[in-house]
Automatic annotation (TrEMBL):
The active site is at H54, N127. It comes from Streptomyces misionensis. This is Catalase. The keyword Metal-binding applies. InterPro entries: Catalase (IPR018028), Catalase_3 (IPR040333), Catalase_AS (IPR024708), Catalase_clade1/3 (IPR024711), Catalase_core (IPR011614), Catalase_haem_BS (IPR002226), Catalase_immune_responsive (IPR010582), Catalase_sf (IPR020835).
């Protein structure tokens, strides 16, 4: 086999890849050395903006297979038949640190699934936690600023982390979750995934349901203690990446079973708490888990940058039969992601193979045109306006999902008041579900962070939240913080 020739970007053969061209032996470089200039210039442009959150992540391909009939609740085509398989790409991530951060840290994990369905790509962009810290998207940039590196010290600051939570009583449930045993997964394979938000399903008759998604790991949930994580993060900062990559290379394919909780739309208004509040779970006794199918990951990407770094997931990518609920957080996310993709990857990011809709060979079928890096040819006589008289693509007249009921006046309202909308009762229920050993570890983890905070008023505000969740919980955290601060 003849050896392939090294070329410049324009395809011309390169004569020497070891020595730059110089004016005479030992002389200065020549501007005419196209290969050198191009190589240095291209290298300078290798990095693109990292994700503002979830920068550090790992991805893999696989499939989703339907195991149970859900056609009574959604007419989504990829869920239409038991046994139906749909290709997927999944990206897992940590949230707060920048690219290059360690994997084994106490932080939620992203769990983003792209289903390449025959009716368009469906993105379910969730976390490994069923709830979240806040319930209004207006607070998201402030929240993230408080958790990422401080602009002055350049590192995560307990003062900022806990100051935000001091002002966010609604975070108490998620803080309890994060500081508990599941706060540091042993690997991406050993954690559950949740859609977290409430979404809407619509069946063929147009009936609407509200649903919550749960991916349960078939590897079993395994977590790390704070001490184990600190050691592992030092030894192998890429521990989650190593684990996922190697498991798939060895043929040990991780899988998750998907369940949903289903609430008939008519029950939402009178439920005892706001069912669209992202800081709360729906008790399984009210809405039991129903099995839907199995997610399997069996192929590693060939190129991490091309396929994982450039992957673009958006909660706004729905398919017929699935839509948003009125959850304010979800509504905010419907804007944020595609906007981030246009900034991070450009307007033509859906032309990249990992993002392109497999339902429409050659890319989206619409009248969007041009922009940086446009490589699709909707050319020749294809018109770039609509309506037209030339057989261009046309609308279906069929909305993807049922309409949402609205009432009242515009304004900056607090969430609608249901009978039990307080911020603490589910945090208390989670605490009371824990064994004595789990409670001790939870209290130690919280105290370890809170005791580093420099302001007493910030500590007191946080303690008040744990007291409100459960008096014993509050008392134990308070004692542990005071003991550490007296040391
Ligand atoms: C990534 C915004 C809440 C899960 C991102 C990105 C943005 C963002 C801008 C980067 C996207 C990119 O550059 O590709 C927001 C806003 C939120 C919010 C404004 C609240 C209003 C949430 C919640 C969850 C979540 C509640 C989970 C339930 C994720 C995941 C990623 C991500 C998994 C990484 C996706 C990937 O792997 O590419 N978020 N986020 N986010 N977010 Fe959120």
């Amino acid at each position: 086999m003849s050896q392939r020739v090294l070329t410049t970007e324009s395809g011309a053969p390169v004569a020497d890849n070891q020595n730059s061209a110089t004016a005479g032996v030992g002389g200065p470089l020549l501007l005419q050395d196209q290969h050198l200039l191009e190589k240095l210039a291209r290298f300078n442009r290798e990095r693109i903006p990292e994700r503002v959150v979830h920068a550090r992540g790992s991805g893999a391909y696989g499939h989703f297979e339907v195991t149970d009939d859900v056609t009574g609740h959604t007419h989504a085509d990829f869920l239409a038949e038991v046994g139906k398989r749909t290709d997927v790409f999944v990206r897992f991530s940590t949230v707060a640190d920048n690219l290059g951060g360690a994997d084994a840290v106490r932080d939620p994990r992203g769990f983003a699934v792209k289903f390449y369905t025959e009716e368009g790509n469906y993105d379910l962009v969730g976390n490994n936690t069923p709830v979240f810290f806040i319930k209004d998207p207006l607070k998201f940039p402030d929240f993230i600023h408080s958790q990422k590196r401080d602009p002055f010290t350049g590192k995560q600051e307990p003062d900022n982390v806990w100051d935000f939570w001091a002002h966010a009583p609604e975070a108490t449930h998620q803080v309890t979750w994060l500081m508990g045993d599941r706060g540091i997964p042993a690997s991406y394979r050993h954690m559950n995934g949740y859609g977290s938000h409430t979404y809407q399903w619509t069946n063929a008759e147009g009936e609407a349901f509200f649903v919550k998604y749960h991916f349960k790991t078939n590897q079993g949930v395994r977590s790390l203690s704070t001490e184990q994580a600190q050691e592992l993060a030092g030894k192998d900062p890429n521990s989650h990446q190593t684990d996922l990559l190697q498991a798939i290379e060895r043929g040990v394919y991780p899988s998750w079973t998907l369940y949903v909780q289903i609430m008939p739309a008519a029950e939402a208004a009178d439920y005892r708490f706001n069912p669209f509040d992202l800081t709360k779970v729906w008790p399984h006794r009210d809405y039991p888990l129903r099995r839907v199918g199995r997610l399997v990951l069996d192929r590693n990407p060939d190129n991490v940058f091309a396929e994982v770094e450039q992957a673009a997931f958006s909660p706004n990518n729905f398919v017929p039969g699935i839509g948003p609920s009125p959850d304010k957080m979800l509504q905010g996310r419907l804007f944020a992601y595609a906007d981030a993709h246009r900034y991070r990857l450009g307007v033509n990011h859906t032309l990249l193979p990992v993002n392109s809709p497999k339902a429409v060979p050659g890319g989206a079928s619409n009248y969007g045109r041009d922009g940086f890096m446009a490589s699709n040819s909707q050319g020749r006589y294809a018109k770039n306006y609509e309506p037209n008289s030339y057989d261009g693509p046309v609308e279906t007249g069929r909305p993807l999902s049922a309409p949402l009921a609205v009432s009242g006046h515009t304004g900056t309202h607090e969430a609608p008041l249901h009978t039990k909308d307080d911020d603490f009762f589910q945090a208390g229920e989670l605490y009371r579900l824990m064994s004595e050993e789990e409670r001790s570890r939870l209290v130690a983890n919280i105290a370890g962070g809170l005791a580093q905070v420099s302001r007493d008023d910030v500590i007191e505000k946080n303690l008040a939240h744990f007291h409100a969740a459960d008096p014993e919980y509050g008392k134990r955290v308070e004692e542990a913080v005071h003991a550490l601060r007296e040391d």
